[in-house]
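Q: How would the C-alpha cells look for this protein?
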Amino acid sequence: MKKNIVYLSGVLFLLIAVSACKKENNSNLKSVFSYVADGFRVTFTNFSTGAKEYHWDFGDKPGDSSSLKSPQHIFSKKGDFLVSLTATDGGQTNTFTDTVSIVGPNIKIDGDFSDWEYVEYAHTNDENFAGTIRAIKAFATAQDINFLVEGTADMKLELVDMFIDADNDPATGYGVADYPAGSGTDYLLEGPAASPSWGSVYIHTGTPAEWVFNPVSSFDAEANFSAIKPVSGKNIIEFSIKKSALGSIKGYINFALVELNSGWSAIGRIPQNGTPESKFIAVQL
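A: Here is the predicted structure in C-alpha cell form.
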C-alpha cells in the first residue's frame, strides 16, 4: 500500500511539473516588427503575439529605448542600426532583432527648410559669442554636402570664406590661425552666397603657413544656394557643394564658415574662435 501511495505521489508530482512547464513555455509568445523610414524618423509596427510588455532598444544613442507597443524613433545619423524588440509575458521573453537602414532626408536646395527638421546641428555657437552666424546643420548625400545656416537678422552672406579640410589632416593645407586646435584648409570657397555668380573654389598649393590658393572651379559649377529667408527672427539659408569639387574625400570633412563685410573684415563665423581648443567642424560623409 505504501508503495502504491509513493508511486501515485510520484506520478502526481510529474504531472504537475509537466503542466507547469507547459504553462511557463508560452508557445504563443513571439516578437517581430516591421518599420518604415522617413529620413531620420522611423515608424515601427509591432506584430508580436502573446506579449503583455515590450522593450525596444534602438541601437542608436546609449539609453535610447521605449516601452510602447509601436513607437516612433528619431535616429541621430545615417547608417545601419541593430534594433531589438523584447516581448514579455510574465517571466517569459522573446527577442527579435533586425537591421534598420537610415539613409537620411532628401535635402533639396529650394528655400523650403522643412526637410532639415530632424537633422541635428553640426555646431551651435555660444550665446555670448558675437557675430552674425549662430548655428549650422550639415548632411551629405552621395553627390553633395548640404548645409543649412542660421544667423541673426544681420546675416546677409554677401561675401563668405568657407575653409574645408578635405583630407582630415590638419597638418596639410593652410593652417587658419583662428583655429589652432585643427584646421588644415585644402579648399577655399570664396564669394557671395546671396549672388554666387562670381564665387570660386580654390585649392591650396603652398605650405601650411602660406596663403597660396589657385582657382579650380566656380560657384556656378560646384555649388547651389537658396535665397536667404527670415524665419522666427532669424535669417536662414541652405546651400550645397558637390563632393567632386573637393578631390578624393572619404569618411569626413572639416570646415569653418566666415561672413565678411565689404571691407573683407569678418563679421560672423562658425565655429567660434578665440580659444586654444578652437577647431573646424567635422561632417560625416
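The radius of gyration is 28 Å.

Residues 10 and 65 are 47 Å apart (CA to CA).

Upvote if useful.
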